[in-house]
Structure formats: C-alpha cells, structure tokens
Design a protein that fits this description.
This protein has 82 residues and is mainly β. It has two domains: 43 residues, no CATH class; 38 residues, no CATH class. It has no helices and four strands. The N and C termini lie far apart (31 Å). It binds zinc ion (2 copies). One zinc ion (ZN) binds next to loops.
C-alpha cells in the first residue's frame, strides 16, 4: 500500500484539524473546504493512542486521537484511557 498517514494536520483556511487521516498520493486535502492541509506545527498538538482498551467499560479502540492537552477519555463511559 502506498498510502501515507497524516497526524494532527490543520487547515489554515478554515481551521479544521484532523486527528488521523490517510492519504494516497498527493497532499492531504481539508475535509471542510478542500484546501491544502498543513503539518501540525501551527495547530493544537494532537496525540494518538493506538489499540487501547477502556478499563471502565471494556471498549476497544484501534486508534483514538486526543486534542491539545485534553485527557484521553473513553467516549462511551468517560473513564481515562491512559
Ligand atoms: Zn479547510
Ligand atoms: Zn469506557
């Protein structure tokens, strides 16, 4: 597979920020306005957790992104995933 994974890129035009996106060839396009995305340097930091299991409800997440300084929390039950 020739895909590339983009993490934490943001769009300078509309302010959209992505957690994780896969692109195949060419630059990543903004899901909001279709403009070019930029690397994370100017946007809020995003952390990505892979293959985590919630200690509260047992939900499994293959990949979950966390914006800025937010704590990684289970979207189902709110228990911290770290
Ligand atoms: Zn945009
Ligand atoms: Zn949970």
């Amino acid at each position: 597979m020739d895909g590339e994974v983009f993490i934490g890129h943001h769009c300078p035009a509309c302010g959209s920020t992505i957690g994780v996106a896969a692109g195949v060839g060419g630059p990543l396009k903004c899901p909001g306005c279709g403009g070019p995305m930029q690397a994370a340097s100017g946007g809020p930091p995003t952390r990505v957790l892979a293959n985590v299991t919630c200690k509260g409800c047992g939900s499994r997440f293959g990949m979950i992104s966390v914006m800025g300084s937010d704590e990684a929390k289970c979207p189902s039950c709110g228990v911290s995933l770290v």
